[in-house]
Amino acid sequence: MNSRTIHLTLALILAAVPMFLVGCSSNSNASLGGGSQNGTVAMVVSDASTEDWATIGVKILSISLVPQGGGNPVSVYTAPTPVPTTNLVELDQLGEILGNVSVPARMYTGAILTVSGNSSDILLTASANPETGFAGTAGTTIPPTQIQVQGTTGTVGSLTVPVNVTFDSPLVVTANQSNALDLEFDLSHPAFLVGHVPPSSGTTIWAVNFKGPVRRHPLRDITRLVLRHMYGTVGSVATDNKSIAITRDFPVEPPTTPETAIMTSHSLQILVDAANGTIFYDVDAKTKVTINDFSTVATTLPTKFVRVAARYQSDGSLVAVRIWASSTFNSVWISPEGHVLHVNTLGTLMTVENEDGHGVALTVDANTEFFYRTPWNAVTDSMPIGQGPGFLTAKNLVRGFKVHVSVVDPLATSLVAQSMDIEIARYDGLISLANANNFTYSRNFAMITDKYTIILPYISGNTPNGKDSSGNPIMGFKWWNFTFPTQIHSGTPAILNFITATNGGVDFGNNITFSASGESFATWGDPANLTGWAAPWAVLVPTPVPLGTATTGYVNGTPVGSFMMSVPGGNKFPTVDLSTTPGSGTLVYQVDRTGAVVTISPVDITTSAGQATITANLVTSTPVKVYGVPQADGSIKAYVVTYFTGTIMPMAVN
Predict the structure, then answer these.
(1) pLDDT tens-digit profile of 14-28?
(2) Which candidate, 44, 331, 53, places its Cα nearest to that of 193?
(3) 76, 336, 475, 538: which one has the fewest Cβ atoms less than 10 Å from its Cβ?
């Protein structure tokens, strides 16, 4: 499974308001609304997964918002000391709560994210089973000497990277109202993480670039955000036994044995689910009970470590779906979290990759319960969707799903799964056979037993499916191109347009062909498939073409420039089209290597200077990597083009 996107979600929640609103544009920069002049910002970070990495660890130092019309940036997050490492791989479209702060009610036109730029603060660990051609070694950590962070400022040992993000429309924070901001880091972007491998021998250099692959992504309903399990220390139980106060804890990265916690002063209030019940696990006593208040555990909870699966309510409060408690942090932490690597044919054994890049074997017995996270629906969020090995033999889990497993005894030699939260039911791969009722995903892996072909029905046309950019409700299946996430296809013509859009293909000869690729997060129990998965949406992603060679030099044109390319083993040379139109131009990057130094430079081909640069450097025989959408005429509509110059040419790029 290739990298997709990282989301840095700033969810602005004001607890007094029962309504979730989306910010709109205005020319006024005064404080908005009456009463309190501040809104509460719940800081949440999230991302998507990658096939090749078990850990992409970064240290987020601070986040601030840029006021419209000038003025000092408003700080909304400052990391505790020591700064915890955020493993982006584990946040596969999940939210990691960092803390809550108060923000002045006004309009903001951008954000400044500051991350550590020291190579020793970047943690890269290869997965246990990376894709074929990956330049790293399975399960190993990249030494800091082989990591170069682009765009750093400061002195050695205290380097930082300020990442400036300009919003397409102002973010409005109004007193007594709520809002949300989602900043999306694109992990699949070739400029984010580039491995430069010499053609014969030498050291692989991994260049990390935080600037460029970031944009704003709409988040219209905080209640639909799936939160990663959070860790904390219980400070107190409310006198009415309806809530607990915890201070956030973060596990040490890379993990230690036993695992220890980085404690912070960031506090959160966690409510019990008084209506549906919160499942409470005493890890030390190995007991499980459903509670509607904390009265039965109030005397034992303070100072204990907890792991909490929670959901947001529309007013910004957090409700616990499940809680695990123990007197030691290690006991609540030993709960394998990661992407599914394997499921055996009997459904009795599965492997989940942990943050060390190793697979954790888990036994599934008749008592193992499977949950599918649906924070927008309290009833289904707390009810298992299956139990025992039969759930697995029915192919309800495949490689690539993101799960968090709780075990019966964390200290046992052989771990038995007690419960399993399916946080993301991800299907992706080549799309084929789309018709009015369903379509097919075909996914290959380096280990052939993990490959799958899945027919996914569309969700029912009567199922609510969010809102469009104008705030109008969407019913039924929707889809969009990854390159244009705001241009959503929905309504009656959506499926017909999807069928048409997935019929393209490109032929490099000798049976080397590429067709449309996509990704969907399936949902369970829709009327279209009450006892299985269905697709609420699909995103067509740019197909990664193998590292190839330009067979003609780039020729500029308006609105489209182009060149032709070949790939190893092919004997045909399809055309690659690049848009030179401002606002929708193809993203072009020039990667130079001189000795052990790798430099990534964006080339803006919507300008005359950028067009001159690419024309001079993307010439015949230049190594080139293309991400694009295959077209019906056999060409490739490029989203990203990366070409390589320098005295040492790359052998492989990931």
Answers:
(1) 332 222 222 233 333
(2) 53
(3) 475
* β-strand partners of 4: none
In Å, what is the CA distance from 534 to each residue of 175, 457, 476?
39, 5, 11
Q: Give the three-class secondary structure for 209.
A: coil
How many angstroms separate the CA atoms of 216 and 166, rounded?
8
| CA 268 to mean position of chain CA atoms | 24
pLDDT at 214: 67
Question: What's the distance, CA 253 to chain centroid?
Answer: 19
What is the per-residue DSSP string for 361-380? EEE--TT-EEEE--TT-HHH
Most confident of 106-110, 117-121, 129-133, 630-634: 117-121
User: What CATH architecture is 544-646?
Assistant: Beta Barrel (2.40)
User: Could you tell me what percent of the chain has a pLDDT over 70?
Assistant: 83
First CA to last CA distance, the chain: 13
CA distances from 213 to 111, 352, 587 (A): 14, 29, 10
Using an 8 Å Cβ cutoff, are 249 and 264 in contact? yes
3-state secondary structure string across 572-599: CCCEEEEECCCCCCCEEEEEEEECCEEE
Chain-centre distance for alpha carbon 494: 25
Per residue in 182-192, is it b (16+ CB within 10 Å) or e — as a string?
bbbbbbbbbbb
pLDDT in tens, 271-293: 999 999 999 999 999 999 999 99
Give the C-alpha separation, 103 to 12, whole Å. 9
CA distance 430 to 433: 10
> For residue 177, what pLDDT is reported?
63
Residue 410, token pair as written in the block: 């964390």
Structure tokens at 436: 């009015």
User: What mean pLDDT is predicted for residues 489-515?
Assistant: 90
Domain 230-333 has CATH 3.40.50: no
For strand 560-566 and strand 575-579, is the pairing parallel, antiparallel, or unpaired? antiparallel
* Coil vs helix vs strand at 327: coil
Q: Rounded to 5 degrees, what are φ and ψ at 120? A: -70, -15
Please state the pTM of the whole predicted model. Answer: 0.71
Mean pLDDT is lowest, of 420-424, 503-507, 640-644, for 503-507
CA–CA separation, 355 and 124 (whole Å): 10
Print the SS3 string covering 479-521.
EEECCCCCCCECCCCHHHHHHHHCCCEEECCCCCEEECEEEEE
Q: Rounded CA gap, 165 and 162, in Å?
A: 10
- Taking alpha carbons only, the member of 151, 165, 148, 161 closest to residue 111 is 165
Give the chain's mean pLDDT.
83
**Residue corresponding to tokens 């369970």:** 524
Radius of gyration of the chain (CA): 25
The one-character DSSP state at 315 is: T
List where CATH 2.40.50 sits in the chain: 230-333, 337-424, 544-646
What values do phi and psi take at 484, rounded to 5? Answer: -135, 75
d(CA 94, CA 9): 10
Which CATH code for domain 337-424?
2.40.50
Residue 20: predicted pLDDT: 27
C-alpha to C-alpha distance for 228 and 421, rounded to whole angstroms = 10
Region of 184 (left: φ > 0; alpha: ψ -120 to 50; beta: rest) is beta
The pLDDT tens digits for 566-625 are 999 999 999 999 999 987 889 899 988 777 778 888 899 999 999 999 999 999 999 999
